[in-house]
Specification:
With 155 residues, the chain is mostly helical. The chain is built from six helices and no strands. It is a multi-pass membrane protein.
Length: 155
């Protein structure tokens, strides 16, 4: 009975590890894609930020800050020893982006798009849903990674 229970626990831990790896991989792809897109077309990104009713006073700083943060988060998600920190950063940045989109959609007459590539083709409501899905994924990754660490500490 104990061996059976241990096997189930190990299987569950392995499923969580695979799930966390998938979530991290999706986060890496998202942040690398977004950062590279912003940096490749930096002037367009900076101009679009300048059109934002909320961000325009800080558009010069934000235009560099966001892609750098996205690249750092992608790197954190890639390195196993700091994956949990990366997941927290992933979650936090996606929550910030989601709140920004919600505010723009509900309280702004001017709705500029400062996204690039495929994300630019999405409507704002679709982008909001997309972000919410990634917020949930990041949160699930945090919960699973935390329980994996807890299970390994018990061994």
């Amino acid at each position: 009975m104990i061996k059976s229970q241990n096997a189930k626990t190990l299987t569950l831990v392995r499923i969580k590890e695979i799930s966390v790896n998938i979530i991290c991989s999706l986060g890496i792809l998202l942040f690398l894609y977004a950062a590279v897109n912003k940096l490749v077309d930096y002037e367009k990104f900076q101009v679009q930020l300048g059109l934002s009713p909320i961000l325009f006073p800080f558009s010069d700083i934000i235009a560099w800050f966001i892609p750098i943060v996205e690249l750092i988060i992608a790197l954190l998600l890639l390195i196993p020893r700091v994956t949990l920190i990366g997941l927290y950063a992933f979650y936090t940045l996606m929550v910030v982006f989601t709140i920004y989109i919600f505010i723009i959609l509900n309280y702004s007459e001017n709705i500029p798009c400062s996204c690039g590539g495929i994300l630019e083709e999405m409507g704002w409501k679709t982008h909001l849903i997309f972000n919410i899905v990634f917020v949930i994924m990041a949160l699930a990754g945090i919960i699973m990674k935390t329980t994996i660490i807890g299970k390994k500490a018990i061994k």
